[in-house]
Structures are given as structure tokens and as C-alpha cells.
Amino acid sequence: MLTTHLLYLHGFRSSPQSMKAQKVAARVRARHPGVTWWCPQLPPSPAQAMDEVLRGIASWPRESMAVVGSSLGGFYARWVALQTGCRAVLLNPAAHPSRDLAKYIGEQTAWHDPQERFFFQPGFVDELHRLEADIAGLAPQQPATPERLMAVIAQGDELLDWQEMQAFSAGGSIRLLPGSDHAISDFDAHIDAVFDFLDLRH
């Protein structure tokens, strides 16, 4: 079934202004105007972020929706896919965000607007722990398949371990990049494969 609704989830300290979000949005607008597109600005609280996302997609058809997520958004996308049964594309997904983001507790600045600040609270790490537990509990019951999950993983990622990302995406279709970086700066070389997987209606 063609994808009719597409959700994009950005990463930590990122926004809908991210390079990949903008490129995906532009292609959806240009080539798939019939697709419902949503890329929300996610709040710093993981629990609040996922609550807002689930409310936002409450009326979406589960069988024809899909989610794309980058970095922390890739972790969120895996969680959303397990909640809904939808297809997911993970772009350098954070496999262990409660561990990796614990060092960022305190005031942070937004990547795309350094004037914008937020406070990453210790309790947010606990919220990530709970989401990780959700994934650990649901993933064995809903094993990933190449038709339902795709991951683009850069071995050159300077922030995340590519082998952990590969294990996190096990069972799905994995596009392993021998170089690249955390931002997947060469995303133009991979966007066709992502859209082929998503199979959007026009």
C-alpha cells in the first residue's frame, strides 16, 4: 500500500529546519503533493515529545503512514513504528540515548538558532530509559523486516557508534555508508533510496 501520511522527527538540539528534514519536505511537496506531511518541533522532554506525536497522528491510517527520524529522532521513529506498526526510516539513529545524552544535562542551545536555549533536565534521561524499555519489550514481538524498516547508517559518524546503530536496526534493510558523517552530509546520494522505500503516493 502506498504511503499517504509521512512524519519526520528531527534530532537532539535540531529542528524542522535541519538539512535532511528540509530536503525530504521539498521532495514531498514537489513530487508527492497528495501526501500529508508533518515535521513538528519536538520539545526537549522525550515523554512530552512522544505524547505530542501520538496525539498529532491519532487520526492517521496506520497501514499507510510512515515515519522518518534522524539521530534521536531515529530512536523516536523506531518507538513510533512499534506503537503503530508503520514503516520507518532511521537515519543514524541513536541506539542508547539515555546513556549518550546524560552528559548533556543542563542548558543547551538549538543548532539552527543559537539564540534559542532550553534546559535538558535529569528527568529527561529517565524518560528516555522508559522509551528504551518500551522498545526492548515490543521489538521481539514485532521483529523488524526489510519491508517495514530501513536504516541509513554512516560508519564515519563522529557522534554515534555505527555498530550499535546497526544492531538497533537489526532485521531491517540497512544501507551502510563506508564514510559520511553524523549529519549524512551526502544525503543527496541516498534520498532516492529512502523515497523508494517509503513508496509515497503522488
Task: Describe the protein's architecture and organization.
The chain has helices at residues 19-31, 46-56, 72-84, 97-100, 122-138, 162-168, 191-198, and strands at residues 5-9, 36-38, 65-70, 87-91, 106-110, 113-120, 149-154, 173-177. With 202 residues, the chain is an alpha/beta fold. It has a single domain (5-198), classed as Alpha/Beta hydrolase fold, catalytic domain (Rossmann fold). The chain has a six-stranded parallel sheet with strand order 2-1-3-4-7-8, sandwiched between helices. The mean pLDDT is 96.
Summarize the structure.
By secondary structure, this protein is an alpha/beta fold.
Q: What distinguishing features does this structure have?
A:
202 residues, alpha/beta, 6-stranded parallel sheet, 21% strand, globular
Question: Which ranges are low-confidence, i.e. pLDDT below 50, for 5 or more consecutive residues?
Answer: none
Distance between the termini: 13 Å
Count all strands and give the number.
8
SSE sequence, one letter per element: EHEHEHEHEEHEHEH
The coarse silhouette is globular
| Class computed from helices, strands and strand pairing | alpha/beta
The largest sheet has its strands arranged as 2-1-3-4-7-8
For CATH, the homologous superfamily is named as Alpha/Beta hydrolase fold, catalytic domain
| CATH structural architecture | 3-Layer(aba) Sandwich
How many structural units, i.e. domains? 1
Q: Please, how many helices?
A: 7
Q: Give the mean pLDDT.
A: 96
Give the class-level CATH name. Answer: Alpha Beta
CATH topology-level name: Rossmann fold
Strand content: 15-25%
The proportion of residues forming helix, as a percent range, comes to 25-40%
Cα Rg: 16 Å
* Largest sheet properties: 6 strands, parallel
